[in-house]
Amino acid sequence: MKTRVAVIFGGVSVEHEVSVISALQAIQNMNKDKYDIIPLYISKERVWYTGEELLDIENYKNVTSLLQKAQKVVLTRDDEGRVVVQKEPRPRFGKSTLHEVDVAFPIIHGTFGEDGVLQGYLELLNLPYVGCDVLSSSTGMDKVIMKNVYRDSGLPILDYLWFYSTQWADDPMAWTEKVKETLDFPVIVKPANLGSSVGISKAENSEELEEAVDLASKFATKIVVEKMVQNMTEVNCSVVGDYEHVEASVCEQVLGSDEFLSYEDKYAGSGSKDSGASKGMEATNRIIPAEIGDDKTKEVQELAKKSFQLLGCSGVSRIDFMIDKDTDNVYINEINTIPGSLSFYLWEPAGKPYKQLLDELIQLALKRERDRSRLMFSIDSNLFSLQKGGGSKGSKTK
Amino acid sequence: MTIKIIFFTLLLITWILPVVLKTKRSVHMLQLNSYRNERYGKWISQNRPKVFPSLEGLYIVPIVLALLVDSPAVVLGSGGLIFLGIYLYFRNSQQTEKKKLVYTQRVQRLLGTTYIMYGLTAAGAIIAGAYLNLLTALIILILAAVLPYYIIMFANTINRPIEARISQGFVNDAKRLLKASPELKVIGITGSFGKTSVKHFVHAVLSSKYNVLMTPESYNTKLGVTRTINEQLKPYHDIFIAEMGAKQVGDIKEICDIVDHQYGILTAVGEQHLDTFKTLDNIKKTKHEIVETLPEDSGVAILNKDDKNIMSYTPQNPCRKVYYGVEREDVDLHASNIAFSSKGMTFTVTTASGETERFLTRLLGKHNVYNILAALAIGLEMGLKLKDMARAVKQMDPVPHRLELKRSTGNITIIDDSFNSNPVGSKMAVDVLGRMEGYRMLITPGMIELGDKEFDINKEWARYSADKCDFIILVGKKQTLPLQEGLKEAGYPENQFYVASDLQDALRKMHEVAQANTVVLLENDLPDTFNE
């Protein structure tokens, strides 16, 4: 018997395509002797599909024809409480159940997949799943909440302020003043809840600030304005584990531009067409391990582990840092609870092959399930229900 | 003629009522006796007043009338009224059931067969009424209304081959599933007592590192273990723990043959179910089936060296044996320095290799030290360290109803040991009560299923308990006679005990006599079959 793992990917997110790449990479590298893999693709229209044809990246060039071939499904519970993949619509005759599922493996970046929404659904199904739970996912996704948590625990973050796009629209002048006062230009403007670099831009003055806020408002109602470090090194570090035990990967140093990566830079890579897309993160311009010296590496790794456990994360995350070259200070930029390519390229140089990483992630999902079932253990008691009938009132007649 | 038909129809309708009610009760008792005719038959012979209530003597009335009066209306009408009356009486005198009848598929099949038989009986009565005489028809119906307990037994016999085939199908499925998980390690646990606790403790210790499945509460029969495998075994499980119960010789081996275990834990051997086992030697032999069926080269037996009944039997199987103990020191795993406090119990464990660790647990009683030792032994076999397991032991919850410490409303702390029913366990439970601070109260209906020695064991236990309790409530007037006698012999003051008619009455009395800081031990609480 092999453990049946449903890899859930695609999704309703600006990082839909990246998710497809990350998921197919993971599926290719999973131990097939140990796991049966069920691909579950969520289209941009929120329809779920399964089928062999979803496993070939080439097929995604024409999504319309791909989805005509794939089987529409729902992930649901059957009469006996098992989680199954069921044909949708349910056929009137014949078998409607395609697969039983033991563990879910969400590989969706951004909204509805990395932010706790999908995780909540899996919780309701009572299905063990890989990665962060609802709270850590949603905390990690919202940059404002994340910064608040880190700041309250004394972890280093850059100064920032935030507002709703409607608040901005009511009085842009006042907000511009406030930005000038508390942060000073240049600043970075971001939508609060996106995982990738989408909607992020730099502002050197009031006009650019207005443009930047307008852009960010297209993606979120909550906007973060952050002090910009002008002379910085961008460093990422991945963490695997859970609340009990964690380890940090080697660090990567992100190059490519002196500011930040554009969406295309980050994911499509600069390589030629045949190798670019499927290679994903590997193709980006980066240095592994980061050339920041042993001490800084260690500092970054320790901060990465702390920020992972502070949110109660599980599975694999990638924490992105900025090092101010002038002051040598390290700042946590953001946490990705389902990082692109699951950060496997940071673990292979750390001595953990991708196959092993995936295996550990699935085992962590099962461990969380065990920890939880232990908490639920033995609540029932029929003694007190008997007592009610027996008359606790009787004692008062004494 | 039409009057006769109308009255006959009414008679048949009223007849159905007491028949259905009594059939339901007899199926319930058959279920409580594990669908085993010999045990069910024994229950019937011990419970004549329930099987043939004296009220059913009223059935003689329509028969006498049939002989004396030549009026179908009078005869059939009186019959109908009596069926109705008896039905109403028994329906309203229905007692609250502690363990309700579960309408399993097996029960449904049994009822199916039974109602076919009743259908035929009714048809027979109609034919007799039409072509012979009313008296014959009446006698057929009345007999059928009196005898459901036996008719169910007969139906059970008829269904047996079908049931055997169905359960064999489940067994084959389970074997197939186990075969498909070659990496799975299977642990079997048996013993006269302690097996459920050990099962939970093994689960708690191992699940810090492994994915563990165990048979749920009271699924310790062949069918229960099979169902657990079929319904709950997942491909990712590393370890399966099967609790194995036995009431007859061969019971354990039957389960072992299905699960093919590599580890066998034998917790204790005592005089439980002597009525079916007949002799202590039979019990020893049956419990040791868990050792004898282990693979000779790779199997590991985990045994309690302090248990004389275990040690007086020499297993044929040469497989490796790991011993644990408190009294005996020549063991692989030894516990010492047991101490009690309001938080629970502490003790030190030493392994043969000299590793040692202090353990703290919220569980009570020396027997729990044994249970934990058994779990630690398995943990060591699976590569865990004593130190790793100390945390799991500290977090262990008491098994529900097994010396479970719970705070009730107000002043009362309850030690719920209501699922216990054996001499050693009961003695340990009152020992624990005796070491508690406060006003100590015992509520118990006594022990059952102890065969010839039942009376003496109960009497002795009552004598033993006398100086450990400040107040004793006995549940059931007839049931507790040996306990009453034991207390009398021990010179227990009469104003310090009360004989309650049932559990409800006992709990009422408990609240009445409770004082500030009262500890109540609830010892043994029996299913309906033994309410008296």
Keywords:
heterodimer; A: 398 residues; alpha+beta; globular; disordered C terminus; B: alpha/beta; nine-stranded mixed beta sheet; six-stranded mixed beta sheet; 15 strands; 16% strand
Explain the overall architecture.
The complex is a heterodimer of chains A (398) and B (532). Chain A is an alpha+beta fold. Chain A has helices at residues 16-29, 63-69, 117-125, 134-141, 143-152, 165-170, 172-182, 206-217, 263-268, 273-279, 293-310, 344-347, 354-376, 383-390, and strands at 3-10, 35-42, 48-50, 71-77, 83-87, 97-100, 103-107, 160-164, 187-191, 201-203, 222-227, 232-241, 246-254, 286-287, 315-324, 330-336. A 7-stranded mixed beta sheet of chain A has the order 6-5-4-3-2-1-7, with helices on both faces. Chain A is globular, with a radius of gyration of 24 Å. Chain B is α/β, with parallel strands linked by helices and 532 residues long. In chain B, 51% of the residues lie in helices and 16% in strands. In chain B, the strands form 2 sheets. Chain B has a 9-stranded mixed beta sheet, sandwiched between helices. In chain B, strand 7 (333-341) and strand 8 form a beta hairpin. The radius of gyration of chain B is 27 Å and the shape is globular. Chain A binds chain B through residues 1-4, 80, 102-103, 362, 366, 370, 374, 377-378, 380-381, 383-384, 386-387, 389-392, 394-395, 397-398, and chain B through 96, 177, 180-181, 204, 207, 211-212, 231, 234-236, 395, 397, 399-400, 406, 408-409, 414, 416, 418, 503-508, 511-512, 514, 522.
